[in-house]
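Checked the freezer inventory, then went back to the computational side. Two predictions to log before the end of the day. The first one is the construct we discussed on Monday; recording sequence and tokens without edits.
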Amino acid sequence: MGLKGKKLKNTLRATKDRRKSMDCKVFGVKFDKSKFSTEKKNYLNRLFNEAKWLYNSILGDQDIFLYNTKCKTVDVLNKDKKWENREFEAISSQMKQGVGKRIIDSIVGLSRRKKNGHKVGRLKFKSEVNSIPLKQANVTYKIVNDKYIKLQGFKKPFRVKGLHQIPVGAELANANLVRKAGDLYLKITCFVQKEEKAKTDNVVGLDFGIETNVTTSDGEKLNFYLPETKGVKKASRKFNKRKKGSRRKFKAKINLQKKYNKLNNQKKDIKNKIVSKLVKENDIVAIQDESLAEWHKSKLCSKKVQHSIMGGIILGLKQHPETLIVVDKYFPSTQLCPKCEAKNKHTLDQRTYHCPCGYSCDRDIHGARNILNEGMKQLGTERIKPMLVELTTSERSPSDKSKVDCVETRSLYALA
């Protein structure tokens, strides 16, 4: 290895070591299509088309791992099912390397899953590619100021919205140029300094369910149900009526994607607010490893699970391993009595837990508290002091009973 190679290797190692102590975040900025000239539209359309040609060409090659991404032309099957040679005009060399590396990474990932016993398929040819990797900041893409960015291979900058989200001093890494529902986005990966979380000395357990989506050990109950809107259903009907392959079918598809995108953004926003609130206000969040996939298969509650965001909340909490404790899914959280440790089975329609020892509690709150207690045991902590709802009726004062009966049920948007 030459002097230049050693210097590059040391720089990469130093960057990797430095970023170990930093947080990785992805910020999305949106291209302002109202400022697009015809030249810019043609360039972006050509860019995604060339990415598709390259992707299919690599996938159809005899040896994908030895494919030369430095090629300047590619063979493409046209509408007449005849091969023709086309020249790359928009896609840059590093963008081509990114497309090639993505395919290799996908094949390696599928191979690993197959070795682990999972059933896997194979990569398929694509009719369109909607994501182009930009592997190097200030080369494949460059932030000009707080309103404009430049892409490699095109001289004029593009006006975007949302660059103000990126913190001052953040280290820019790779990015992805994404086309979604007729709009264009740039997903920028950044590394920012870690913020020390303030200790709150609070702990909470969560119980997930169908009747009440999330119940906390403090007695809070959260329900969220976001089904398909009338706009989504109307757009879906229009899409199904259009003739296959027509221009109107394509426009109806884009409109339907926009409607679903709006609904998904609403779900994501609510999920982020709930996760952020739980993580900021508690040092420990204990949950049970729920089998939501099995719940979704049930005919009785499949739609309720599909239109809720329980899976998103669980996934969001798992992104904070320093806060989360996961209790085994076979732990009898709804059966175990915290007072005498006896197991009492209750049917789903019984919403209050009763034990022969005299203990009685709301079923969901009872489960959340058991999950919290089991999670604290995993940390080697003694069982927490029983709360009001864990006491028997004879042990409660009249004022305590009124507190227990008034379990707070907050609306979903109260967390905003």
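The second is the one RB wanted added to the comparison set:
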Amino acid sequence: MNVHKVISFQAADFIDIKNVRQIITGNLLYKDASELFYETSAGQYLYIFRYGVVSFFDYNPDEISSSFNVLQPYCRNFFTPDFNDELIVETSAPENRISHNKIEIKNEDPELIRMIMLNVSQSVTLDYYSDQTEKLLEETNSYTQLLARKGRLIIGGRKLKKFIGKTLLLKNRIAENLYIFDSPPETWENEQLDRLHNELKKSFDLQDRFRDVSEGLQIVKDNLELFKDILQYRTSLLLEWIVIILIAVEVINFFVGKIF
């Protein structure tokens, strides 16, 4: 059997797919508004996703580094790709079979390889979104703990709005970019691809990990709604006191004017 490796990196928040297409050489096997899949040379494949993931099949470290140098100008918020996931692919196997960190396939069919690279890429971007969600949860919990200890919320309205915006942006990005519950259109009429796709989802535990991220974001959202209600109540109470003070001042002025 021939041994290959798929490795996917979360390298940025966004990649300009439209302009990247103008500078990548190779045989473009698949494209849509959010993905580009190339055979860059014999037996090597490159998969680029709009949501910042780049996946490589049978690339060595120097080739991966060179590819990032080419792609970096087209990335928004490019960062050191600490988030990565990989899978060993053995070809010329008797049958398609998945085991821990390894998949065996009968032949090097580009559609099979693309489906494998897609699932590895979904896995790494889930790691990234999980990390972002964890940071939001930690920040939310710090305000919740202060609220429990001191009985008051220490966050301004402007900061709360930015916090809500970050949470909604992350929820929207996840909804747009992850295909955890929907199979790609290519699998609808290809039983082999559909079976491989479903087995890979189970192997990477994608659905459970997706639910964990979604539930984490829902907890953040519920807390932020509570914070917003508290701030609105605080603002309303302040306005009531201002009105009471103004009325009191007017009454005092009235009586002072009558007396003097």
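For RB: Helices lie at 17-20, 61-71, 110-150, 157-177, 191-203, 206-259. The beta strands are 2-10, 14-15, 27-31, 35-41, 44-49, 53-57, 75-76, 83-91, 97-99, 102-104. Let me know if you want it refolded.
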